[in-house]
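Design a sequence for this backbone.
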């Protein structure tokens, strides 16, 4: 199917990526209206040359007096399609090829293919780490110590409720017998050592748990000034992350979207919503929306989004969790140094169709049969992440 589309003047695979990033927020590949019209059969409505001019600069086409463009503007005003002057003719042809291919492809087969592609990822599993084994052994030791203490208590109680007479035949009360048993236990050096070590272990565990938790905000889900739902936008409506976080594929930080980006859609959609009205108020008063930051690394750590999302082809969900299912955004991963290093040790470098890595791959294969991982190209060096 992709070959047929390519023969018609575009690469549907490349067009799909561009459509997802730039077009999907306002248009559907079907005839369904989103914000703008559905694109099914678009090449039968306008020729390719007209579409290229329109996508690059729709305002110019409208200003030229083109009848179709004028009618389209009259139908959807005051909204005007965003200009894409940076797109090449081939990019636009690829997008159009994707639209045609999407309408020609049978949906059930595509769904089955997606399910089949997802199966290997779901089947993968990791072996227990060394730290997990150490913790498990420590818990078993604690259980044994607790069992010994319980047995000692049972022994004390059994003696306390046992025969009421002493060797001389004199009767003793329950309190006297219990006091005698406790004195015997307190003078037992072995039992005292067990209790002491158990106490020391519990104190040390609580101390180290507290220290390891310093600076970790896993599970942090603050209340935001506007109740924005990633589940609705990224999940139900499949808005690409790059549409709001504009530099996620090309910058160090992903950036927080401005109110103007929200207005690209909400200038017309759900304007009466109390939450959307907060955006209007922010724009009218020229007051920035004070979003609460959820994911925050210490200043001593360097992280570059583009290096991971673009070069490394790491999916957003790898670090941020299933954002498309979150009603309230929260920090799913620990984001600790150990967590990052573990990822670098396991993640294979995306070398396919990237000549930059050809010599590195060839050199790596001479000394190892394992795939080239981030750790093999300096991913564990301190200076990579620390200034």
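Sequence:
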């Amino acid at each position: 199917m992709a070959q047929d589309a390519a023969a018609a003047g575009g690469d549907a695979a490349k067009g799909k990526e561009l459509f997802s990033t730039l077009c999907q927020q306002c248009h559907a590949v079907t005839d369904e209206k989103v914000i703008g019209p559905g694109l099914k059969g678009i090449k039968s409505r306008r020729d390719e040359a007209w579409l290229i001019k329109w996508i690059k600069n729709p305002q110019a086409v409208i200003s030229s007096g083109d009848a179709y463009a004028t009618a389209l503007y009259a139908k959807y005003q005051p909204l005007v399609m965003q200009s894409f002057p940076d797109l090449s003719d081939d990019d636009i042809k690829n997008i159009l090829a994707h639209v045609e291919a999407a309408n020609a492809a049978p949906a059930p087969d595509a769904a089955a293919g997606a399910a089949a592609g997802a199966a290997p990822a779901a089947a993968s599993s990791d072996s227990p780490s060394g730290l997990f084994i150490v913790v498990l052994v420590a818990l078993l030791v604690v259980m044994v110590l607790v069992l010994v203490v319980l047995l000692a208590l049972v022994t004390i109680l059994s003696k306390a409720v046992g025969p009421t007479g002493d060797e001389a035949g004199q009767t003793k009360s329950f309190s006297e017998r219990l006091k005698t048993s406790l004195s015997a236990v307190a003078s037992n050096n072995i039992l005292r050592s067990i209790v002491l070590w158990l106490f020391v272990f519990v104190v040390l565990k609580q101390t180290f748990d507290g220290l390891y938790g310093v600076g970790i905000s896993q599970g942090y889900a603050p209340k935001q000034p506007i109740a924005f739902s990633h589940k609705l936008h990224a999940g139900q409506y499949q808005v690409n992350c790059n549409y709001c976080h504009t530099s996620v594929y090309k910058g160090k930080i992903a950036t927080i979207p401005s109110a103007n980006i929200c207005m690209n859609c909400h200038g017309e959609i759900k304007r009466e919503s109390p939450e959307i009205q907060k955006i209007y108020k922010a724009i009218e008063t020229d007051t920035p929306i004070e979003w609460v930051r959820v994911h925050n690394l210490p200043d001593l750590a360097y992280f570059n989004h583009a290096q991971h999302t673009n070069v490394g082809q790491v999916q957003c969900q790898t670090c941020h969790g299933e954002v498309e299912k979150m009603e309230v955004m929260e920090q799913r991963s620990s984001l600790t140094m150990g967590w990052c290093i573990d990822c670098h040790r396991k993640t294979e470098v995306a070398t396919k169709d990237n000549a930059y890595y050809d010599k590195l791959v060839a050199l790596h294969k001479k000394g190892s049969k394992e795939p080239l991982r981030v750790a093999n190209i300096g991913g564990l060096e301190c200076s990579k992440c620390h200034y």
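The mean pLDDT is 81.
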